[in-house]
Amino acid sequence: MGYPNGVAPQGNQPLFSFGVITDVQYADIPDGRSFIGVPRYYRNSILVLQRAVQKWNNHQNISFSLNLGDIVDGYCPKDQSLNAVRKVAKEFENFNGPVYHMIGNHCLYNLPRSKLLPLLSIPSVDTCAYYDFSPIPEYRFVVLDGYDISAVGWPHDHPHTIEALKLLDEKNPNVEKNSPNGLVDLERRFLKFNGAVGKEQLKWLDNILQDATKSNQKVVVCCHIPLDPGATSKEALLWNYDEVMDVIHRYDCVKACLGGHDHQGGHSVDSHGVHHRVLEAALECPPGTDAFGYIDVFEDSLELLEFVFLNGNGELLELVNGYSSGSITIMSYLTVDLSASVRNQLLNPDSYQQY
């Protein structure tokens, strides 16, 4: 059972803790806005990362950190892409422990997989970017490659590119494949800035979860692109989230899924009791504010701590939400809202945002 109100008893020590941050999207360019008008602070985002690393190091008990993707922005001038990736990767290297990266669409706008993966020390076979690791015997983390099937990052004649473009042509009639205009409900996920998990990766995931079940391990699945419609906007959802979740739901070992991509963040509990937590973007922090945190892992709970942000009105939100389901609890101490003007734009079915 989870702890009452999702809070561990005072004095109880976690099995381990790990840092989390997503969507830094650094670029040495002036501030801008998303397609729906949300401010983006390209130069400031690396300062958010610096404070995150400092906080994790000061904590002294953070075992590792997770970067959930998009370390540089697509607007980064292409002649600066390599240096920008190196600069952000260097900031992560200042953390006193292992850093586990995953790739996002903005990473792939800047560099091909062949250059990107070595810079981020991502274990790779045939430039695929999925892998797993176990910080302690009782827990396993599974990192998915959400751009395995993608129109970005692969050579133009690569089978994964061809498969992605074929799917987009079938599902999205718009000339601009990043536009959801005319698409209805969950079909709005078929946008070029999203992607899919390929068949070989699905087989790999099934084998990993079989092994975790035999080893009596709890599993946390991580993917830049969210895996549950309840935790994200429909436009920021993995193309074949349903196939991935079909594999995950075959087993009881997966307790939580972590993601980025949708900058507003979100939380849901799916039909099988798996928690989905999409983390807020560091990119959209006004100067002096932060979006990062760390997660304390207990035997029967996960607690997300110190995830700080301001809403679109410049007001600090101090809502405490405890989520529990049987053997796991996820805590989110601070949540994100948008200003009324931006929220109204979100209600426009023809507005879209390159996450």
Structure description:
- The protein is α/β, with parallel strands linked by helices and 355 residues long.
- The chain has one domain: 4-Layer Sandwich (Purple Acid Phosphatase, chain A, domain 2), CATH 3.60.21.10.
- Helices cover 24% and strands 20% of the residues.
- The strands form 4 sheets. It has a 6-stranded mixed beta sheet, covered by helices on one side. Strands 5-4-1-12-13 form a 5-stranded mixed beta sheet, covered by helices on one side. A two-stranded antiparallel sheet has the order 2-3.
- The longest helix has 16 residues.
- This is Manganese-dependent ADP-ribose/CDP-alcohol diphosphatase.
How many domains make up the coordinates? Answer: 1
Round the Cα radius of gyration to an integer and report it. Answer: 19 Å
- At the fourth level of CATH, the homologous superfamily is Metallo-dependent phosphatases
Strand composition percent: 15-25%
User: What's the β-strand tally?
Assistant: 15
N- and C-termini, Cα separation: 36 Å
Question: Biggest β-sheet: count, sense, barrel?
Answer: 6 strands, mixed
> Which consecutive residue ranges, at least 5 long each, have pLDDT under 50?
1-10, 310-353
